[in-house]
Amino acid sequence: MPFRIEIPQVSDLQDVVNLHNALVLTRSKTPSMRGFFLMDTSVEALASRLGRNDCLFLVAKSQDLLAAYLIASKSAEHLDRLSWLVPAARQLLDERSHWHVDQIATAEPFIRKNYASALYSELAKHNQNGPISAYVATAPFNNEVSLKFHLRLGFQKVAVFESSSFLGIPHYKSVLLLKNQAHNHET
Question: Which of 75, 96, 104, 148 is buried deepest, with most CB atoms within 10 A?
Fold first, then answer.
């Protein structure tokens, strides 16, 4: 089914909120839609990210239905609290061309139909092939699908974030993944 990727309009934001909030860890109801977001969002929070130079907000639509969305920013958080698996990766996260994926999600009817991959491809175009990073939460819940998806796209594990309690979640752990696109295009 054909789809398009675009910058969202204000009229799209409630659909993004509905998708996001359905995927909050404590709210997910079906096994195929396990929650992975840690807290709710709002139209106001999303609207504040529109039109900013330090943020890229994309939606994928199929027949005017929200299929997926991605929000990326120019900085990753908690870098000083990471255990680095690849210490040299830290420098790439300080590059001006670096984008960090804050959120990416696909609506249930559109899962495994390349919407998330297409959003990452569009981010790469906007990024002029600079480095892209993303956190994938790995404990206390299983997010193996997301981890495998990112590794398949060429990301590598570069650091681990662990906390005895993070945003009220005990024994929290996430992996920082990095795709160094400049390196990938040189080989």
Answer: 104
